[in-house]
């Protein structure tokens, strides 16, 4: 009986006979030899079946196996410098687990992305999609490690919430036993409460935006990591962000070289992602755009072309700081020197990937918070608990939200955010 091994660990078994439990990804045959491309979830390997070296029924089976049949392939691990993996399998036996029906939808020719998204449940088996989701997993873990190692406590906010936080226009409403409730847009307000209990916390979960945007950067359900820190001010908040992003990128570079190569990612651009990151004020960014002949006035929000232009001036992500207060949510602390702008920043990724982080110092003064809420026509009742945080030991504090999928898209260098999450929810898609 052979050892079951995973393809990613195959190098340890050179010269030994092993068995791989997986699926047939692709096949080529030429008379007396069949090449089986086998995947097992951990990787892809080529199995070489030579007619005179296997039983005739095994050879016949190999010629017949359909794409995506589940099979157990046994053979001897051999070095093969021509393959990406560096090894191949000299096949001795193949056992069928479940033959796939003829006509597998994702044949190995080119398909349009919309078609592939309809078959996402199968598309995720292919090498590029597999690499993206593995890098996503690595990024997930690197985020958790970063915060855990730096003394942050993970706090899960509720997904069902009674109020809005980022604005009322893009909420998904639900009926909560006869009361109006919403799927959470952000866990921030709850993270602020937890920061007063634990000092440094982060939440990491799904968030929902009923935005009718059909862009390469918007999902209606996405994952956001949201740290919140007591006694941390605006400038210190930026340092934590650049350290986090650098940690994530460097971890992916160390641990996911093969996946980045599969995606043909130019890693020289990622190598440069180390602190400090450049900072530019909103006002200076507006001037930069105007000098480049964009029609843009102070107070306008940046669109994708503006963000891309600003980002193109830098090799690293760039912080745009001190946005006009009226553009941003009620909770952002005004700048003491100029209360028309806030002590907050968006972090814009290089290469046109747009905003990956939004953050700020939060208002900690009770009267100022109440004034801002009034200006934004927010009812006090549902926010009473949030307001109370300013009554009992309020301190300056800051936090930010990093969109996981936009970060994955940038690090992977792929053009559309829908490929960065296992099953995307977009304007026209709730299937599969
Ligand atoms: O800038 P946003 O809306 O900020 C907040 O929600 C704050 N409450 C976060 C905080 O300070 N705790 O969203 C933060 C990030 C964006 O920078 C972006 O990366 C991502 O979340 N994001 C989206 N990602 C995918 N699809 C969407 N529709 C997104 N909207 C925001
Ligand atoms: Mg934002």
TrEMBL record:
<comment type="similarity">
    <text>Belongs to the class-II aminoacyl-tRNA synthetase family.</text>
</comment>
<dbReference type="InterPro" id="IPR004364">
    <property type="entry name" value="Aa-tRNA-synt_II"/>
</dbReference>
<dbReference type="InterPro" id="IPR045864">
    <property type="entry name" value="aa-tRNA-synth_II/BPL/LPL"/>
</dbReference>
<dbReference type="GO" id="GO:0006421">
    <property type="term" value="P:asparaginyl-tRNA aminoacylation"/>
</dbReference>
<keyword id="KW-0963">Cytoplasm</keyword>
<dbReference type="InterPro" id="IPR012340">
    <property type="entry name" value="NA-bd_OB-fold"/>
</dbReference>
<dbReference type="GO" id="GO:0003676">
    <property type="term" value="F:nucleic acid binding"/>
</dbReference>
<dbReference type="GO" id="GO:0016740">
    <property type="term" value="F:transferase activity"/>
</dbReference>
<keyword id="KW-0436">Ligase</keyword>
<dbReference type="InterPro" id="IPR002312">
    <property type="entry name" value="Asp/Asn-tRNA-synth_IIb"/>
</dbReference>
<dbReference type="GO" id="GO:0004816">
    <property type="term" value="F:asparagine-tRNA ligase activity"/>
</dbReference>
<dbReference type="Pfam" id="PF01336">
    <property type="entry name" value="tRNA_anti-codon"/>
</dbReference>
<dbReference type="Pfam" id="PF00152">
    <property type="entry name" value="tRNA-synt_2"/>
</dbReference>
<keyword id="KW-0030">Aminoacyl-tRNA synthetase</keyword>
<protein>
    <recommendedName>
        <fullName>Asparagine--tRNA ligase</fullName>
        <ecNumber>6.1.1.22</ecNumber>
    </recommendedName>
</protein>
<feature type="domain" description="Aminoacyl-transfer RNA synthetases class-II family profile">
    <location>
        <begin position="133"/>
        <end position="422"/>
    </location>
</feature>
<dbReference type="InterPro" id="IPR004365">
    <property type="entry name" value="NA-bd_OB_tRNA"/>
</dbReference>
<keyword id="KW-0067">ATP-binding</keyword>
<keyword id="KW-0648">Protein biosynthesis</keyword>
<dbReference type="InterPro" id="IPR006195">
    <property type="entry name" value="aa-tRNA-synth_II"/>
</dbReference>
<dbReference type="GO" id="GO:0005524">
    <property type="term" value="F:ATP binding"/>
</dbReference>
<dbReference type="GO" id="GO:0140096">
    <property type="term" value="F:catalytic activity, acting on a protein"/>
</dbReference>
<keyword id="KW-0547">Nucleotide-binding</keyword>
<dbReference type="InterPro" id="IPR004522">
    <property type="entry name" value="Asn-tRNA-ligase"/>
</dbReference>
<comment type="subunit">
    <text>Homodimer.</text>
</comment>
<dbReference type="GO" id="GO:0005737">
    <property type="term" value="C:cytoplasm"/>
</dbReference>
